[in-house]
Amino acid sequence: MDINDNVETPMILKVGFNKLLEHYENLAKSNDEFLSANAKRVLKSAESYPELRAGFSDTQVLKDREKEIRLILQDSFAPILSRNEIKTASVPFHDLIFNSSERFKNIIEIAGGGFELNIKNMPDDHRYIIACTIILNYCYGYNLNFKRPFYYEIPDANGVLRYYKILYNADFCEIEATDKAKKITHEDYNQLLDNFDNLALWKEKFPPDSYIFNGFVISNIFDVTEDQSISNIKSSLIGEDKRKDENFIQGFHEIFRSLLGINDIKVGFSIYNQEEDVFERVYGVGMHSYLLGDMETRKCSDALCGWSYNRLLKENNYFSVSDVDRDFEKSKGKAPHIVNLKKQGIKSAIFAPIANDKGLMGIIEIVSPTPQMLNSINANKLIDVMPFIVSAVERSKNDEENLIEAIIQKECTSIHPSVHWRFAKEAKNFIKDEMEGKEASFKKIAFDNIYPLYGQIDIKGSSEARNKATKEDLTLQLKAVKSVLKKASEIEVLPIYEQFIFQINTYQKGLAEHFQVDSEQQISSFFKLDIEPLLKHLYQIEGLKEDIQEYYDSIDDKVNVLYKHRKDYDDTIAKINAEMASLLDKKQVEAQQMYPHYFERFKTDGVEHNMYIGESITKEASFNQIYLYNLRLWQLQVMCEMENAYYQMQSDFPVSLDVASMILVFSQPLSISFRMDEKQFDVDGTYNARYEIVKKRVDKAFIKGTKERVTQKGKISIVYSQKLDEVEYLSYVKFLQSKHYLDNDIEIVELQDLQAVTGLKAIRVSVLYHKNEDDKAFYTYNDLMKEIKA
User: Fold this and answer.
1) pTM above 0.85?
2) What gap in Å lies between CA 312 and CA 301, rounded to an integer?
3) Got the DSSP string for 30-46?
């Protein structure tokens, strides 16, 4: 078999000992008789076999000349060190090893028959390129330094991976060009310097088999398991979102197994919450806490005994439990951490504090099902890795704090991405002024000459619905109290019971005939000040206990009133807002891709949204009116889709409510600025304030000469003041009619004058609905209600 079979390199590989034998020729001339005699003996053994100098690629020669080769390499592989050194003789870029020390043979034998020896961190593509760099150095005199550590990963008798670093001695190699070799110019060299990963280019300059390698390399191999384990821990802890990776914690177990040389261990973590003095679980795929067991969180004083609490939290020092069963008996089952370990089948453990100069941040927990496997001796190996774990936890805590701040900003004080660049610019200027010792101030954030768009999907009759729910709840609560008082008056005749019953009858009549704004407050005060103290007294009477307990069971603990119908109403409003806001947010992602613009939305009794578009926001000279028209059409279409989505999910809501949609058109560009005190954008200037006035009042406006609101269920109302706006939006309506979003019943109405605002008009048109996403039929609002109720 030829060693070059199935191996592609720029060099034909030959095993040869010419360079080594030349070294012995020099030693043969030495004045040292012993060295000279030994050298002559080596040279004599090779004398009859010229192939040992000339080189050979047939592996049979290795077998035939095994005795001679062993003698030639005897000084390089000293027998006296063979059981200690890990050493091999081989050819480069090949798995052929033809001589090795006893210790190397033992390591491979222990690894098992199925083990294949491969350099862990040398990709196949790199083997070819590395061979080319060696040729550049050896044949052309360039000084390309590609020295980097290479490793073997070899399992030991316990299945624990051990790491071995390889150092090559290439003193006994020769390389010469064949007629296939291309002359490498300085221009070629310069090109190759910038193209390490371009394998095709290297193959073009150094064709396969264009050089001959004659010689061998000696690999000196060192067990660096502990150093590599520490390095692997560093690598594992560097990087983002490792806790989401399913393989992360398993890999972490393997690393610690290699570090400690123990196969049956697992690693857990718990976080220390200083504010509450509790341990908390670390959330992530495969993460576990052996200190907490199946608990999510636990007071530190409940999770540890007094001594271990002081050791970890006060001294910030590790401790080990080498025999859990022994310590359980010794502590008579009163040490909480020992009890928890025993429950989980753990027999030995190490707990090490993750702490910095500010104090404890968490605990790393290493556990084993074998007694005495973990102890205070091997716990000392953690000293070298703890600094990296501490750094990782510090970074993780900072990342978590930043994420919390980001979520708070997004949910509470959001700065939209479209204008974030402007805030970042001012923040940089602020920092620059501070660093230069100037008086730093955050300049006004304003955008001029931008076009506003406003829309809302409003819940119709929300006030009436809430009043109805309140009346029903108060009526039920009054009825329940009245029942208790009647029973009380039968047991114990007291005029005060009759007086309270009279008061309840008065409230019930008032609720039935005319519910007023202050009715809820009056009745709630009556329950709190009069009824609650009385019921506490009556609860002592045996015949009333069950009725009073039933009354208390109907009372909501959070609001301390009967909260059944009002809860249904509040849940419905919350669900409507959540669903509509979520749909609008998803649609906004598409709109931003069309052209970036500012967007914000608000949840009230429904969902409102503001959008601003213009060149000053995008920061680029790319704005054109066509993007404004496109956004207006998009907005109208999305409002139709939101109406449809609402009525398709209406049956899922506890209370049946209707919605009405409106769009406000404002054609004149305006200016907005960020109000630092309110943490939101608002319009600038007196003229622009007209836009805000219309926004706040127009949905309650009546059609001129009537008592009919401009917004109606089942219709979209488009409010405007300019004839050009009317023409523009009628074209959009016509387009959406062709796509069956809107019906054909267009009406144009005038609105009554608002304070300081006159001349408003509205286009109103019915939305076409589907019963569900699969339904292909189109319905008006009235038709849809009939279909849903059928």
Assistant:
1) no
2) 11
3) -S-HHHHHHHHHHHHHH
**Backbone angle region of 267, left / alpha / beta, with phi > 0 → left and psi within -120 to 50 → alpha:** beta
What tokens does 509 get?
A: 């009549």
Which of 59-68, 561-570, 650-659, 768-777 has the highest average model confidence (pLDDT)?
59-68
Distance of CA 88 to the CA centre of its chain: 46
Measured on CA atoms in the order 433, 438, 444, 448, is the torsion positive or negative?
Answer: negative
Distance between CA atoms of residues 361 and 316, nearest Å: 10
Distances (CA, A) of 380 to 229, 386, 692, 717: 15, 10, 69, 75
Cα distance between residue 573 and residue 298, in whole Å? 37
| 453-500 confidence digits (pLDDT tens) | 999 998 888 888 888 888 888 889 899 889 888 988 888 888 888 898
pLDDT tens sequence across 586-614: 999 989 998 999 998 888 888 999 999 99
Please state, in angstroms and rounded to a whole number, the distance separating the CA atoms of residues 545 and 307.
Answer: 50
Strands 715-720, 658-665: pairing kind: parallel
Predicted confidence band of residue 776 (pLDDT cuts 50, 70, 90): low
pLDDT of residue 245: 52
Of the candidates 536, 553, 543, the residue with the CA atom closest to the CA atom of residue 486:
543
Q: Alpha-carbon distance 531 to 500, whole Å? A: 8
Going by C-alpha positions, the residue among 78, 72, 86, 166 that lies closest to residue 62 is 72
Select from 252, 247, 81, 219 the least CA-distant residue to 152: 219
- Describe the strand order of the beta sheet including 161-169 as a list of residue ranges: 97-100, 86-90, 217-223, 161-169, 150-155
Contact 781, 650 (CB under 8 A): no
Q: How confident is the model at residue 285 (pLDDT cuts 50, 70, 90)?
A: low
Residues 359, 336: Cα–Cα separation, whole Å: 23
* Residues in contact with 720: Cβ distance below 8 Å, sequence separation at least 6, in sequence order: 664, 665, 667, 726, 729, 760, 761, 762, 763
Dihedral, CA of residue 47, residue 49, residue 55 and residue 60, to nearest 10: -150
**Mean pLDDT, to the nearest integer, of 140-153?**
78
490's tokens: 């039968």
